[in-house]
UniProtKB/TrEMBL annotation:
TM spans (from-to): 7-27
A Gene Ontology molecular function term of the record: peptidyl-prolyl cis-trans isomerase activity
Residue ranges annotated for the PpiC domain, each copy included: 186-286
Protein source organism: uncultured Desulfobacterium sp
Protein keywords: Isomerase, Membrane, Rotamase, Signal, Transmembrane, Transmembrane helix
Annotated SUPFAM superfamilies: FKBP-like, Triger factor/SurA peptide-binding domain-like
InterPro entries with a match to the protein in the record: OMP_Chaperone_SurA, PPIase_dom_sf, PPIase_PpiC, Trigger_fact/SurA_dom_sf
Listed name of the protein: PpiC domain-containing protein
Cross-referenced Pfam families: Rotamase, SurA_N_3
């Protein structure tokens, strides 16, 4: 599960990239409009300007305005989004000040590696990325500077938050023992069905007719005809449908279907089931057996879960402490 810290870290690493790749990084002011910049927040010796906030919120503003909300709801959402973004910018400014305090640095190789990861994640060639960066007036050097800033922010968070987390063997074992069911062997069933849909308003004659058709289909299956063949032939009948339902763990299925398949093997099928959707036969095409995991096998994954739980708390505490000892003034 993605932690709040990870979400924040992703935000500070990707904020410029998202603006470029999704909405465009726009420097020019709207045609015919005069933009008057002002300070919206003071953070120690630094300031956040209205233009900083406008750039950071532009993509989200456009998304909200295009969603078709009513006037009051749109206004409330825009106000809340701007407040949240300003809060994020204050956190980023505080983080940048910690970078200076620690004298943290990066280099061209780290920046190049980060850009390569972006290209891989977005399935972009170098030329495509450069075109997307430059098409709205941002140079590739500007883009590299943005990547550099965010690498530096990641490093200070490593020092202040990640490096102070210790997960013991006892912690790992305690989690494993309290979540034993997650590490037991599990089957996943690849299910298909043949169904005649009915609804609660269907009369007795309609239900009787649907059941008669299903009984004929069931008889063919019992005679040994392949499910795929019967399914294909039956689909030509009026009202008969068939589907590849996909893979399911037993506990993801309704109690009725769980009970119907619990003793079946691969390539076997249920009796005719009267379900909320209608009359259907469920066929097990394949059973994927997921083996259980010992404590040693599960340890790495458990440590990741515990790490995220702890990092949320530590990050929140660190940021609260940083804000308490800082001078922060929001100017409405």
């Amino acid at each position: 599960m993605k932690s709040k810290f990870t979400t924040y870290l992703n935000n500070i690493v990707m904020i410029f990239i998202l603006l470029i790749l999704q909405a465009g990084f726009i420097y020019d002011k709207p045609c015919g409009a005069e933009v008057v910049d002002r300070v919206v927040a003071v953070v120690n010796d630094d300031v956040i300007t209205l233009s900083d906030l406008e750039v950071a919120t532009r993509a989200y503003t456009e998304k909200i305005k295009s969603a078709g909300y009513g006037f009051e709801e749109e206004h409330a959402m825009l106000f809340k989004m701007r407040e949240d973004m300003l809060d994020q910018l204050i956190n980023r400014k505080l983080t940048d000040q910690e970078i200076k305090k620690y004298g943290i640095s990066t280099n061209d190789k780290e920046i190049d590696n980060s850009i390569e990861r972006i290209k891989e994640a977005k399935y972009l060639t170098d030329e495509e990325l450069r075109n997307m960066v430059t098409k709205d007036g941002m140079t590739f050097d500007d883009f590299r500077d943005a990547i550099k800033e965010n690498i530096l922010r990641s490093k200070v968070l490593d020092i202040e938050v990640k490096s102070k987390i210790v997960i013991t063997k006892e912690d790992t074992k305690a989690y494993y023992d309290s979540h034993k069911s997650d590490y037991m062997p599990q089957n996943k069933y690849h299910l298909f069905n043949i169904i005649i849909k009915t609804n609660s308003e269907a009369d007795g004659d309609d239900k009787h007719e649907a059941m008669s058709v299903m009984e004929k289909i069931y008889a063919k299956l019992k005679q040994g005809q392949p499910f795929e063949e019967v399914s294909k032939d039956s689909a030509e009948s009026s009202g008969v449908e068939n589907s590849d339902l996909g893979y399911f763990k037993a506990d993801e299925l309704s109690p009725q279907i769980q009970d119907a398949i619990k003793n079946l093997k691969q390539k076997e099928f249920t009796k005719i089931l009267e379900t909320d959707l209608g009359y259907q036969i469920i066929y097990i095409k394949d059973i994927e057996v997921k083996p259980g995991k010992s404590l040693d096998e599960a340890a790495a994954g458990i440590q990741g879960i515990l790490f995220n739980d702890i990092i949320d708390k530590n990050f929140k505490l660190w940021m609260e402490q940083l804000r308490k000892k800082s001078y922060i003034k929001i100017i409405k």
